Amino acid sequence: MVVAGIVLLGGCRGASKSVGHAGSPGPGVGGGAYPAFFKVGHRGTRGLMPENTIPAMEKGLEAGANTLELDVHISRDGQVLVYHDESFNPDYTSMPDGSDIPKDQRKKYTFYQMDYPEIRKFVIGRKDYPAFPRQRRMDCYTPLVGEMIDSVEAYASARRLSPPYWLVEIKSKEKTDGFDQPAPDEFIRLLLPVLDSKRLGRRLIVQSFDVRPLQVIHRLRPDIALGYLTDDKNAGFSDNIRALGFEPAFYNPNFHLVTPELLKQCHERHILVEPWTVETADEMGRMKALGVDGIITDYPDLLQ
To answer: CA 128 to CA 285: how far, in whole Å?
Structure first.
């Protein structure tokens, strides 16, 4: 993880292997089957469709992704929505009337300070986005996570596609608790019932850069597979696991941090590695040759 002028597409089986996990067993962990390789559509397929929208997720499936990555936030009225940043990004989002969002007023449009009906009126994907020249221009909106999952699951079923794995990223930082997002316990209290209602089982993975929400979920629901995200060049694997306090099912670093030694450390502990964000076929080939367990990319159509 997307009213005037909106284009809505669908809302706007491969081999598997058994893997273990050094921590508490959970779905797809400690004996459950995961894909032989995770082909992860980053924000659906940001390279081809407006990111974190329903059409982006549907396109991700069409492009060959078996896993869909999305980001979640909480609105002021307690809804769980899908968007990357904590506020509307003026680079690819417009005001409800189609005008530009003033960059110096962006903080005014922080989701945790807005109710969802107001958020839904903003337009994603109409503006040209030079960073992603292959991305299709269309009018989308910020969806609720439950709406997105329902729409994409129905889309996959109607087209006889395998139902996707869902890689849900919690966006939070301790220093912005109370303004950008609720504190972790409240965030998880709002998030888990929505995800539980979708009965995803082993197809659900929750990840974050912030150890706090992962710790809350690990305490409350050790059956949910968790992933630790990192792009910290100064903290190694052992440092990060120590800070987290348990061994997650997934360790998902910036792809520049992937080394044979890191993969050895993870795989000895039955931790899977999905680096991000890998954008070229050459880099994808290099990551596969190193032995990663999946790749997170804006271009799942390039994954072979």
So the answer is: 30
